[in-house]
Specification:
Elements: H1 2-21, E1 64-66, H2 76-86, E2 91-95, E3 108-112, E4 118-120, E5 125-130
Parallel strand pairs: 2-5
Antiparallel strand pairs: 1-4, 3-5
Length: about 130
């Protein structure tokens, strides 16, 4: 029985191969291509013109200034305002009595070191005061 099945399978295979190799034209399957396109619009807005804003000009602070003379008898707060306006950054108050100087309006100036000389505004100015 096995021989008949093998023979039948072999015959079928030969017939199938013979049909393929016979050169008889076979209809090619129809191929359909579907193409989908998506349109994308790109919109670019023109940038707003840049505004150039110049920083406000700060008042020019001189690199050096002259320490005021004839300050004896002035109120310490008034001298502090004057020295600050000249651009001095470090004003040191030295009490003639050794007390701590807290409220400038309560003190009177007795003198200032290097009065009348020109010095750097970043250097300290020593002011002597009394109550």
């Amino acid at each position: 029985m096995k021989t008949k099945t093998t023979l039948a399978a072999s015959t079928f295979l030969c017939m199938a191969l013979a049909g393929c190799a016979s050169g008889s034209p076979q209809a090619a399957p129809a191929v359909t291509h579907t193409v989908t396109q998506t349109a994308t619009a790109i919109v670019t807005a023109a940038p707003a013109p840049a505004k150039v804003v110049a920083p406000a000009a700060a008042p020019a602070i001189p690199a050096t200034a002259v320490i005021p003379v004839n300050v004896a008898g002035m109120n310490a707060e008034a001298l502090d305002d004057e020295l600050s306006a000249l651009g001095f950054e470090k004003i040191i108050y030295n009490s003639d009595t050794g007390k701590t100087v807290l409220l400038l309006s309560n003190w009177t100036v007795t003198g200032v070191d290097n009065a009348g000389s020109e010095q750097s505004t970043s250097k300290g100015v020593v002011v002597h005061v009394t109550k």
